[in-house]
Design brief:
By secondary structure, the chain is an all-alpha fold. The protein is 74% helix and 0% strand. α15 runs antiparallel to α16. The model is unreliable at 1-12 and 128-141 (pLDDT under 50).
Length: 435
């Protein structure tokens, strides 16, 4: 959870346009395109800038996921209720994210944004992902499940294994619940650590323009400006995919639960604008906790579902991972038949759960997913780094809406939703809660 100071900064007076990060990224991309087009060799040499940015983000993913999940579980004091709500929540998350992944795969196969790029990555250095590639050697189910349990506690963090970190986080979260008052100092430390990590990520994200510049210069310098046509096609197709999911999946769920999705979008419009501008759903986590409680959802349900959803229910991230992975296969002429895509879907069902709502995390999980499958070249992720932030402007609002709907669904399922209060708030009949 971010600090009050960080929250105020996120929602305060707008900065001058030239100080906004998305503007700087966009300008960096333009400069990268020009450099790669007019000076191809120099543009190709910019690749380390993109690689350095990825490594800087990757080092923070494991501790962020750990702190977020542990804090979310430990907020509830009733162990029986934690288990009951957690099981219902995880079932819902798994069903919805599976639907999101299937939609992403179907649309990208029909849209075919990468066909015709004919990218050759034979000369690209993949030494930075050797550890991930080595893990794909044991592909049977037993070996995969055994790999979820880390050899040592710190080993999961040192190796950056997403599922191992989640496994430890769940255990530690329940342990803190059982400890009760004795566990509160540890929980306070975890909360403070998570705030520190969010600040570190915010600092690193200021290097996003440099990383985008390096990646775009490398892409254009090595493959030519023509590759941007396919990248633009990927971006447009991805936004369409997000709209299909929101109005084709979340709208029927909202209608079934007895509330209007359009009224909910109006209720959280400020948060949607903030998320769209910052491309990080963590910037509005404190506001969403308050707003959903004001909407009539019980505090204990909100406290569990929202933080857990930031790791387990990233619908937009699932759409991004499925769409981009198949795009990279198309761009590199990598054969990807139906069974390969079914296998990719199975891997994404697990790896997508580790992409916390921090800007840049989805890109890291994408690289880890490609390394896990061993089919699509991991080095191909350099092709999309330049437009990742633009794609994040679609995936992060989708994540936010998905988690807002999930919280209401879980509250109603648990009998912890004040329907009358929800209707008053969504109809504008109740005073807006101060956030």
């Amino acid at each position: 959870m971010v600090s009050k100071r960080g929250e105020a900064k996120a929602i305060g007076a707008p900065k001058p346009w030239y100080k906004k990060l998305w503007v700087q990224v966009l300008l960096a991309m333009v400069v990268g395109i020009l450099l790669g087009h007019f000076y191809p060799q120099t543009g190709t040499a910019m690749q380390p800038l993109g690689d350095a940015f990825i490594k800087a983000i990757r080092v923070l993913i494991a501790p962020i996921i750990f702190c977020t999940v542990v804090h979310g579980i430990a907020r509830m004091a009733d162990v029986a209720k934690v288990g009951r709500v957690a099981i219902k929540t995880l079932i819902y998350f798994e069903v919805i994210t599976t639907i999101a992944l299937v939609i992403g795969l179907v649309v990208v196969n029909l849209w075919q944004p990468g066909v015709g790029m004919n990218v050759d990555l034979a000369k690209v250095d993949t030494s930075t992902v050797k550890n991930y590639i080595a893990q794909t050697q044991n592909t049977d189910v037993v070996s995969f499940l055994m790999n979820i349990i880390p050899s040592t506690f710190m080993g999961a963090f040192a190796e950056g294994q997403v599922l191992q970190v989640l496994f430890l986080a769940v255990l530690c979260g329940f342990a803190l619940v059982w400890l009760g008052e004795r566990g509160k100092p540890v929980l306070a430390l975890i909360d403070a650590t998570s705030q520190m990590l969010f600040v570190v990520v915010a600092i690193i994200m200021w290097a996003a323009p440099l990383g985008a510049f390096g990646a775009m210069a490398f892409t254009v310098g090595k493959f030519g400006a023509g590759s941007l046509v396919s990248l633009g096609k990927l971006l447009g197709g991805f936004y369409v995919t997000c709209l299909i999911f929101v109005f084709g999946v979340l709208w029927p769920i909202s209608h079934w639960c007895g509330f209007s999705l359009f009224k909910l979008l109006r209720y959280i419009r400020d948060e949607l604008l903030i998320v769209f501008a910052t491309t990080s759903s963590e910037t509005v986590l404190p506001r969403m906790l308050v707003k959903l409680k004001h909407l009539g959802c019980e505090e204990s349900v909100v406290g569990l579902v929202i933080p857990t959803g930031y790791s387990f229910n990233l619908d937009g991230t699932c759409l991004y991972l499925a769409s981009t992975a198949v795009f990279l296969a198309q761009a590199t002429n990598t054969p990807l038949d139906l069974w390969h895509q079914v296998g990719l879907l199975a891997v994404l069902l697990l790896t997508s759960k580790g992409a916390a709502g921090i800007a840049g995390a989805a890109f890291v999980v994408l690289a880890a997913t490609l390394a896990s499958t061993g089919t699509i070249p991991v080095a191909s992720v350099a092709l999309v780094l330049g437009i990742h932030r633009l794609m994040s402007e679609g995936l992060t609002p989708t994540n936010l809406v998905g988690n807002a709907v999930a919280t209401i669904v879980m509250a109603k399922w648990e009998g912890a939703l004040d329907v009358a209060q929800m209707n008053r708030v969504l109809n504008g009949e109740a005073e807006p809660n101060a956030v």
